[in-house]
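Thread: "does anyone have the structure for this chain?"

Original post by V.I.:
We have the sequence but no experimental structure in hand. Need at least a predicted one for the grant figures.
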Amino acid sequence: MKAIRYYGKHDVRVEEAAEPASPQFGQVIVEPTFCGICGTDLHEFESGPIFTPKSPNGYSGAILPQILGHEFAARVVSIGPGVETLKPGDRVSIQPQIGPRLDYFGTRNLSFLGPQASVVGLSWPWGGMAKRAIVHEYNAIRMPDDVTDQQGALVEPAAVAVHAIDRSGLTPGGTLLITGAGPIGALVVLAAVAAGVTRIFVSEPNANRRARIAALSNDVTVLDPSSPDFMSTIRDGTEEGVGVDAAIECAGHPRALQTCLQAVRAQGTVVQVGLMGGPAEISPFELTMRDITLRGSLNYPLTIWPRIFEMMRTGLYPAEKIVDDEIAMDDVVDKGFRELLDPNGGKMKILVSMQSA
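Reply from O.Q.:
Generated one for you, tokens below.
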């Protein structure tokens, strides 16, 4: 079958790969329809291998070359023994977190935090950028009829953004700073609007991405972090100039984290979402004296898919607004990876059409 496989830094190939054999107990074979290129895929391409294993993973057995793709919708082709909730022909959105279900983390529905965690398309032998893939029954969530395949491919990153809002503790009428206007930052904007956040500031150095964010919603104030009045604009936009209730860091940059800490009010919350490759200098004294909560946000509750479906199908969460293009598999490097990695570009999300020629 045709597949998009990752071999190492700057080495992604569209090539023939072996088709999956019969699914084992509790597994299904799916036929991907659309698959998103994620920021994690871009990190692998530019700097990896990071999450893709160079030696066999003890739980999944994955090893390079890795079939990419963990943000995807699909149709069920066949089911293995023991599968009860799916049948061939079902349209599904893939929840890509895999891990033991009966260890400490698995029994708490937090398998992605466990030592044997795997992710479809990164550290599992199969991924969404191929004509077919094997996943567990619990990974394939049946979609409502009024959720499109394109939306189904956006549920995974949309869930990351909704979970970040949940972690922030924001309530309707709250104020928020988002640093970084990539796809997750953009989805956090839409999730914040859906949650009733009334004042949203977005910090982004790329002028094209600032324009892209401004077009998403009228409820957003888009700022250049290099502007001399950057912080005063944020403070002047909050009650009595105290600062925002919460800040969500999506850029994965130490200075952005420092900006978030400066921008929140006393007893505010900072949520770190962006993956940061190195240490960041912060002041524990300031955390204490201003009673600030600093928390990470990894993935999402594994049961969040139906909630995202409802938000999407009702129009409350129009995640499809961030999609810039749909491309064929053969164009994944030139029209996908390279377009999204352009430092001056404004594109946020590109979907690969897996059934195109």
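V.I.: this helps a lot. The chain has a mean pLDDT of 95.
O.Q.: and The chain has ten helices and 18 strands.
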